[in-house]
């Protein structure tokens, strides 16, 4: 018997960021509180390391504890991050406040900029997020 990957119908092509960090279990709880994320999938090793797939109103991302032996290091390990996420939401102001209340730190306050309502913050794990919405014209 052969496996047909298309038997269940076409699969949409997507790109989902995968965040390597320290404290995967704490990160899952932070993203739930900060962004209203839902845990879609989770694997936890006996020593407590986590791999989780998260969804914020259908926008998905993955996270896991860092594994330097595989080249997956945290923002803490590299003392920064070359990537930032842009979370497009209905109400950037409310989403930004919720993330701050959950423990994120403000980098740039929410404001109108280049046709967007946008603010930037850093989460407790060193990842940068922009909360944004296109301003209707």
Describe the fold and architecture.
The protein is α/β, with parallel strands linked by helices and 137 residues long. It has helices at 24-35, 75-78, 92-102; strands at residues 18-21, 38-44, 50-56, 59-65, 84-88, 105-113, 116-122, 128-134. The protein has a single domain (18-66, 75-134), classed as 2,3-Dihydroxybiphenyl 1,2-Dioxygenase, domain 1 (Roll). It is built from 3 helices and 8 strands; from the N terminus they run E-H-E-E-E-H-E-H-E-E-E. The strands form 2 sheets. It has a 4-stranded mixed sheet with strand order 1-4-3-2, covered by helices on one side. Strands 5-8-7-6 form a 4-stranded mixed sheet, with helices on one face. Helix 1 runs antiparallel to helix 3.
């Amino acid at each position: 018997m052969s496996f047909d990957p298309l038997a269940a119908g076409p699969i949409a092509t997507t790109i989902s960021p995968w965040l390597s960090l320290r404290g995967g279990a704490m990160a899952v709880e932070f993203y739930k509180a900060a962004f209203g994320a839902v845990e879609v999938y989770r694997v936890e090793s006996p020593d407590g390391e986590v791999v989780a797939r998260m969804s914020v109103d259908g926008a998905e991302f993955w996270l896991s504890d860092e594994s330097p032996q595989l080249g997956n290091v945290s923002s803490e390990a590299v003392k920064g991050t070359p990537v930032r996420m842009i979370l497009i939401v209905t109400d950037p102001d409310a989403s930004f406040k919720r993330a701050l209340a959950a423990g994120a730190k403000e980098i740039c306050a929410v404001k109108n900029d280049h046709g967007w309502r946008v603010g930037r913050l850093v989460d407790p794990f060193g990842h940068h997020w922009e909360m944004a919405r296109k301003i209707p014209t």
